Amino acid sequence: MKITIAAVGRLRKGPESALIADYLDRFAKTGRGLGLPPAQVVEIEDKRGGGMAAEAELLSRVLPDGAAIVALDERGEQPTSPDFAARLAGWRDQARDVCFVIGGADGIDPALRARADWQISFSRMVWPHMLARVMLTEQLYRAATILAGGPYHRE
Ligand SMILES: C[S@@+](CC[C@H](N)C(=O)[O-])C[C@H]1O[C@@H](n2cnc3c(N)ncnc32)[C@H](O)[C@@H]1O
């Protein structure tokens, strides 16, 4: 199993990058004993300003073959953290790669969203893509603690 976060935009050094690095590190450490590999971030950037369609083309090139595609979109399903953890465990048990996709300023191209196995939302509100990345990495860490039976997540 491989876990990839395919994201539009380059992360600059700053508060979001510190949070993301921290959650990715926690996820890697907690996931190790659970058969969950560290998540790899792959960033894409369309320097020619081709918008969503051009970004979708670049994103498509980095999606691992056969991976479950999870598109992050404010219109998506709103799973609970335990639901999210259970999906992750399901892909792990099937030895299936998973690729989370985070769009840019205009969002994810509808054609790419339609290809997703799962579209998930962190609320109906729109968040800056770097904050969506922070929330995703936190939820990955939280999922690992749920699967490990740790005290971090409380209902
Ligand atoms: C600034 S948002 C773009 C939203 C834009 N309104 C659109 O046209 O879809 C950039 C990216 O952050 C992520 N994002 C923003 N808000 C989100 C939310 N509530 N739930 C999940 N992902 C979100 C999505 O991947 C989105 O493509």
From TrEMBL:
* A GO term for molecular function: rRNA (pseudouridine-N3-)-methyltransferase activity
- Keyword set, alphabetical order: Cytoplasm, Methyltransferase, rRNA processing, S-adenosyl-L-methionine, Transferase
Primary place of residence?
A: cytoplasm
Q: Which reaction does it catalyse?
A: pseudouridine(1915) in 23S rRNA + S-adenosyl-L-methionine = N(3)-methylpseudouridine(1915) in 23S rRNA + S-adenosyl-L-homocysteine + H(+)
User: Which GO CC terms are listed, alphabetically?
Assistant: cytoplasm
The answer to whether the entry has keyword rRNA processing is yes
Q: For this protein, what is the EC number?
A: 2.1.1.177
Q: Which CDD domains match?
A: RlmH-like
Instruction: Report which superkingdom the organism of origin falls in.
Output: Bacteria
Segment forming the signal sequence: none
Compartment list: Cytoplasm
Positions of S-adenosyl-L-methionine binding:
72, 103, 122-127
The record's note on quaternary structure and interaction partners says: Homodimer.
Protein family (similarity comment): Belongs to the RNA methyltransferase RlmH family.
Q: What does this protein do?
A: Specifically methylates the pseudouridine at position 1915 (m3Psi1915) in 23S rRNA.
- This protein's name: Ribosomal RNA large subunit methyltransferase H
